[in-house]
Write a structure and sequence with these properties.
- The chain is of the alpha/beta class.
- It folds into two domains: 2-227, Alpha-Beta Complex (Spore Coat Polysaccharide Biosynthesis Protein SpsA, Chain A), CATH 3.90.550.10; 231-304.
- Helices cover 53% and strands 13% of the residues.
- A seven-stranded mixed beta sheet has the order 3-2-1-4-6-5-7, sandwiched between helices.
- Strand 1 (2-9), helix 1 (16-21) and strand 2 (32-40) form a beta-alpha-beta unit.
- It is elongated and about 90 Å long.
- The two termini are 19 Å apart.
- The model has no long low-confidence stretch (mean pLDDT 89).
């Protein structure tokens, strides 16, 4: 049983060494523990500090690609190294690596495919109120679209079984935290949650520069991911609204005609009603096309899953 701990990092030279040194190298039920750092185009000594602290592998981006891409590449690299379990932890020292054995326990006992840590946001005195609000909004939205009782959708300290890692195909550049949860739900993967200690950052977050920017980008990821898996549901809702609005207007026109015997002055209303109904039907047709595309994408994801599983079983390395 091999555990690979992935650490996405961008200009984290001050903290990454301590994070790596605190990662337990001997865990009951685990044969080996390896540390993989994904350097996302750092402009300072992140890679050097990581190697000095004992990182086993480093994957480097030539430029800053974004946390979502760094996480994705870390997951793929861990699978190529033959990981049976992948743990992702932030490089900024917010999470305690000594909690890794507790985090992976549900995976070792095959109770879950993914384990999410959650922070007691309300009692984190060092977290600014704006970030607390943003966290709660993103968690609420993730909980709403998945129907799962997610406590902290933003936590970057999480563990994946090999099967879950193979099934995860991410497209978001900015972040990965919500997309992985939504994919797990839509793909039938089992999620457990465990409380985790959280410490204050030594400097300002590089991911969340402003609440508005984060809300916009995270919201975009959530909506696009939901769209990918439920296009017909979205188009059907749009179609229903348009057709109902058009029908209501149409009934108003028909009532007027039955009473007055003439269309005037309801002709504009009749035109609007017709446009709404036709547009609603078109939305429904587009939904059917989108559902067909979704089916094709699912076939493609199954092919990708088989390719990644074969590569992982071959343990091709980096």
């Amino acid at each position: 049983m091999k555990l690979v701990v992935t650490i996405p990092a961008y200009n984290e030279a001050k903290t990454i060494g301590a994070v790596i040194r605190d990662i337990p190298r001997k865990i009951e039920g685990v044969g080996s523990v390896e540390v993989l750092v994904v350097d996302d185009g750092s402009t300072e000594d992140t890679v050097m500090r990581a190697k000095e602290a004992g990182a086993d592998h480093v994957v480097s981006h030539k430029k800053n690609e974004g946390l979502g891409f760094a996480f994705r590449d870390g997951l793929d690299a861990a699978l190529r190294l033959g990981a049976d379990i992948v743990v992702n932890i932030d490089a900024d020292g917010q999470y305690d690596p000594k909690d890794i054995p507790a985090l992976i326990e549900p995976l070792l006992n095959r109770r879950a495919d993914i384990v999410l840590s959650w922070r007691d946001i309300d009692n984190l005195e060092f977290m600014p109120i704006g970030k607390k609000i943003g966290n709660k909004l993103a968690t609420w939205l993730t909980r709403t679209v998945t129907g799962m009782p997610i406590k902290d959708a933003q936590s970057g300290f999480r563990a994946f079984s090999k099967e879950a890692a193979l099934r995860t195909n991410l497209s978001g550049k900015y972040t990965y935290v919500q997309e992985t949860i939504m994919q797990a739900k839509f793909k039938g993967l089992c999620i457990e949650q465990m409380p985790a200690k959280c410490r204050a950052r030594q400097d300002e977050s590089r991911l969340i520069k402003s609440l508005l920017t984060y809300a916009r980008r995270a919201g975009k990821v959530i909506l696009i991911t939901y769209w990918h898996y439920h296009p017909l549901r979205i188009f059907s809702a749009i179609a229903a609204i348009l057709i109902l609005a058009g029908s209501a207007s149409g009934i108003e026109v028909l009532v007027h005609i039955s009473r007055s015997g003439t269309l005037s002055p309801q002709a504009p209303v009749a035109i609007v009603a017709l446009i709404l109904i036709v547009t609603g039907i078109q939305a429904l047709i587009l939904g059917l096309f989108a559902e067909t595309i979704k089916t094709q994408r699912m076939f493609q994801e199954e092919i990708l899953y088989r390719l990644k599983r074969g590569e992982s079983n071959g343990n091709s390395g980096l």
